């Protein structure tokens, strides 16, 4: 993927660029808002990572201006503030996701992967299917290998989220945000507990396993024989 | 300069001006009324005298009238009379002949000694008078007059009285103004002095408050209350800074140990990784503490209030209940809920979610196996009472007030991982929502109760704040289904 990083802190920018290049991405770095905006508007990127606090033109303005100019590239905003209001502001300005610094690199990677491959909104789908696992969104039923599986509403929602993001690593934080709407870190193992219950229902006694624990700190639901 | 700008001077001047103005108005009124009434009285007198003399002349002739004038002159006073023949000759009276004028008149008379013809008079014998002239049929002229000296004397008396009275009033006004404004300003100065003492570092100085509760006392009392609040805030700030320093020292020390052992003693890649992982773990705990502190500070700043909307608290607690029930179960605890539907408060959904989560996680983390944890929401007389109760060991009564403080940890939970900020955040969120937070004895166990004012507007779309488009509404929907058992699994 071709990724634009707009970040004024050199150490952070280098850390990001190095990590992303190791993952096989092409990285362009801009160290201020104006240059960032020029890059964003002038070239085609798969994902843009933009820091909120930038000299010259701040991150939110870059996002707003780029969106105003018709740039549709997914944008991940970064902030150090850890503020609760910032996320809403960032998303309202046209950002697609939001990450608070400092973060684990795996978290960033999972999020840009999710952003880059975000499919067009498939709300019209009524069935989600991976291998022999089938979810009917209208009847709200789940079947695997022809057998009905009973799920609680929360498990259903968790599985739906995994299915919609199949073959993609979802971190704990992403699941908390996506499934529960929690924008904070619980102290207890909420995600692990619910994933383990879901696994015991949809994977236990079936072959092959569909829900995997990803290296780092996430989960992935993928069909057998698919890479990643 | 200094004097002119002082409040004492200005107040006193104002006093003096007010007093002087009222004295002047009073003086003008007395002067006018007295002058008028005296003038009217004199005019009536002289008219009566002139007419009566004219009547006597007509009835009894010139001789008798002259005798009557003599008699009247004997009585003394400042009266003037003139009986003057048709030819303008003096017949009787004490003034020199004049050209006849009828009716009331102001005149300047020349005194006439009896028997003399009026020659050889000096200017000093000219007198101002008010007179009344009557012409009898045959051309004889009768004039009665009265000197205006009486009026002038009265006027002088009034002027003197008012000058003296006015002078005394001004002196009184100055004194009164000084006394009153100095008394007032002395109390203002006392407040100023308090402020100066505080600026000089004596932070516990307070303004004196008297018993009578007037405006100045209320000012002083409010000032004191403000100072108390500031002082308590400063103390808590000081407390926080020292707590932060203290609480961060331990993890920082451990971080250093990990890094040192990585450098000094790690022999294999495996050992090296273990030390580095431990260091990252410590760093994460530190960052978490920082972000919790920032979050609490942000909540306490009140900026989130602008985004308040009606939040369905029943639905929110239901979500927390089904989220944490399996977690509790895995720990050998039981989580049950008793949630009355339809309870809504005005607030911030995300913060309320965190409040509920923190309370439940607190119960899960600090109670042993076999504990029952209950989530409750009920409506009660305009209030929403939300609570988390457990049957665990509880908190001793004397410790209860302290657990909402940042970094405060009970002796029994020192070994449990955690920042000691969970309940501080709960307290901040409750405060932001105008909710009352209480810890009660559950005998055995603990009840944390939050009493919210009930929202006045109904719950709007719950999807609002969620960043994931499909999260909000559907959860609510499945939620409704959950309340009727088995519907979720047809």
Keywords:
heterodimer; A: 228 residues; alpha/beta; Rossmann fold; Arc Repressor Mutant, subunit A; 2 domains; five-stranded parallel beta sheet; four-stranded antiparallel beta sheet; 8 helices; 12 strands; B: 490 residues; alpha+beta; Beta-Lactamase; Helix Hairpins; Heat Shock Protein 90; five-stranded mixed beta sheet; 9 helices; 16% strand; disordered C terminus
CATH T-level fold name of the largest domain in chain A:
Rossmann fold
How would you sum up the major sheet of chain B?
A: 5 strands, antiparallel
Poorly predicted runs of chain B are 114-121, 462-490
Distance between the termini of chain B: 92 Å
Question: Can you count the helices of chain A?
Answer: 8
Q: Describe the strand arrangement of the main beta sheet of chain A, using strand numbers.
A: 2-1-3-4-5
Outline type of chain A = elongated
Task: Write the element-wise H/E pattern of chain A from the N-terminal end onward.
Answer: EHEHEHEHEHEEEEHEHHEE
What is the CATH architecture term of the largest domain in chain A?
A: 3-Layer(aba) Sandwich
Structural class call of chain A reads alpha/beta
Account of the 3D structure:
The complex is a heterodimer of chains A (228) and B (490). Chain A has helices spanning 10-22, 33-42, 59-68, 84-93, 105-116, 153-164, 172-180, 190-202; strands spanning 2-6, 26-30, 47-51, 75-79, 97-100, 127-130, 133-136, 141-144, 147-149, 170-171, 211-214, 218-221. By secondary structure, chain A is of the alpha/beta class. The radius of gyration of chain A is 19 Å and the shape is elongated. The model of chain A has no long low-confidence stretch (mean pLDDT 88). Chain B folds into three domains: 2-153, 2-Layer Sandwich (Beta-Lactamase), CATH 3.30.450; 215-300, Signal transduction histidine kinase, dimerisation/phosphotransfer (DHp) domain (Helix Hairpins), CATH 1.10.287.130; 305-459, 2-Layer Sandwich (Heat Shock Protein 90), CATH 3.30.565.10. In chain B, the strands form three sheets. In chain B, strands 2-1-5-4-3 form a five-stranded antiparallel beta sheet. In chain B, strands 7-9-10-12-11 form a five-stranded mixed beta sheet. Chain B is rod-shaped. The two termini of chain B are 92 Å apart.
């Amino acid at each position: 993927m071709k990724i634009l990083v707009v970040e004024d802190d050199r150490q952070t920018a280098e850390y990001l660029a190095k990590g992303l290049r190791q993952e096989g991405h092409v990285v362009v770095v801009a160290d201020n808002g104006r240059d960032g905006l020029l890059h964003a508007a002038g070239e085609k990127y798969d994902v843009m990572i933009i820091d909120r606090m930038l000299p010259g033109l701040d991150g939110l303005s870059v996002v707003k201006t780029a969106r105003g100019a018709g740039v549709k590239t997914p944008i991940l905003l970064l902030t150090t503030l850890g503020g609760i209001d910032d996320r809403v502001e960032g998303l309202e300005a046209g950002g697609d996701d939001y990450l608070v610094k400092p973060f684990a690199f795996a978290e960033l990677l999972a999020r840009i992967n999710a952003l880059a491959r975000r499919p067009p909104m498939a709300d019209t789908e009524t069935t989600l299917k991976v291998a022999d696992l089938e979810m009917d969104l209208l009847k709200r039923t789940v079947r695997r290998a022809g057998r009905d599986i009973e799920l609680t509403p929360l498990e259903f929602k968790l599985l739906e989220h995994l299915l919609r993001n199949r073959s993609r690593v979802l971190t704990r934080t992403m699941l908390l945000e996506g499934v529960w709407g929690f924008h904070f870190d619980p102290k207890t193992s909420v995600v692990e507990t619910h994933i383990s219950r879901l696994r015991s229902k949809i994977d236990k006694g079936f072959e092959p396993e569909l829900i995997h624990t990803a290296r780092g700190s996430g989960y992935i639901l993928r069909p057998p024989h698919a890479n990643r | 300069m200094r004097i002119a700008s002082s409040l004492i001077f200005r107040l006193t001047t104002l006093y003096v001006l007010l007093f002087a103005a009222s004295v002047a108005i009073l003086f003008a009124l007395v002067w006018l009324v007295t002058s008028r009434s005296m003038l009217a009285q004199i005019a009536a007198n002289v008219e009566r005298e002139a007419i009566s003399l004219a009547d006597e002349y007509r009835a009894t002739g010139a001789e008798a009238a002259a005798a009557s004038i003599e008699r009247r002159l004997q009585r003394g006073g400042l009266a003037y009379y003139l009986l003057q023949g048709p030819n303008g000759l003096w017949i009787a009276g004490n003034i020199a002949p004049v050209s006849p004028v009828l009716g009331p008149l102001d005149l300047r008379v020349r005194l006439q000694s009896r028997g003399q013809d009026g020659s050889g008079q000096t200017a000093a014998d000219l007198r101002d008078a008010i007179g009344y002239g009557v012409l009898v049929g045959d051309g004889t002229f009768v004039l009665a007059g009265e000197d205006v000296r009486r009026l002038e004397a009265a006027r002088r008396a009034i002027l003197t009285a008012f000058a003296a009275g006015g002078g005394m009033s001004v002196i009184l006004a100055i004194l009164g103004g000084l006394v009153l404004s100095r008394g007032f300003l002395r109390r203002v100065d006392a407040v100023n002095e308090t402020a100066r003492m505080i600026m000089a570092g004596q932070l516990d100085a307070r303004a004196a408050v008297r018993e009578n509760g007037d405006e100045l006392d209320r000012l002083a009392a409010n000032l004191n209350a403000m100072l108390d609040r500031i002082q308590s805030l400063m103390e808590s700030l000081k407390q926080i800074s020292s707590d932060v320093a203290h609480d961060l020292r331990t993890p920082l020390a451990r971080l250093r140990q990990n890094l040192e052992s990585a450098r000094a003693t790690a022999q294999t890649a495996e050992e090296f990784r273990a030390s580095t992982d431990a260091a990252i773990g410590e760093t994460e705990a530190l960052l978490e503490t920082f972000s919790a502190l920032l979050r609490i500070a942000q909540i306490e700043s009140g900026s989130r209030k602008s985004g308040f909307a009606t939040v369905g608290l029943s639905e929110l607690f239901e979500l927390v209940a089904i989220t944490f029930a399996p977690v509790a179960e895995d720990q050998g605890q039981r989580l049950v809920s008793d949630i009355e539907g339809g309870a809504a408060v005005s607030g911030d959904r995300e913060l309320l979610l965190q409040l509920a989560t923190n309370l439940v996680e607190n119960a899960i983390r600090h109670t042993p196996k076999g504990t029952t944890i209950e989530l409750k929401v009920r409506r009660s007389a305009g209030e929403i009472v939300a609570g988390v109760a457990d049957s665990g060991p509880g908190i001793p009564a004397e410790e209860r007030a302290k657990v909402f403080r940042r970094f405060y940890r009970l002796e029994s939970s020192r070994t449990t991982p955690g920042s000691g900020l969970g309940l501080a955040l709960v307290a901040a969120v409750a405060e932001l929502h105008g909710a009352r937070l209480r810890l009660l004895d559950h005998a055995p166990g603990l009840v944390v109760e939050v009493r919210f004012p009930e929202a006045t507007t109904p719950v709007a779309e719950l999807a609002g704040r969620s960043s994931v488009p499909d999260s909000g509404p559907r959860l609510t929907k499945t939620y409704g289904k959950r309340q009727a058992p088995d519907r979720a699994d047809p």
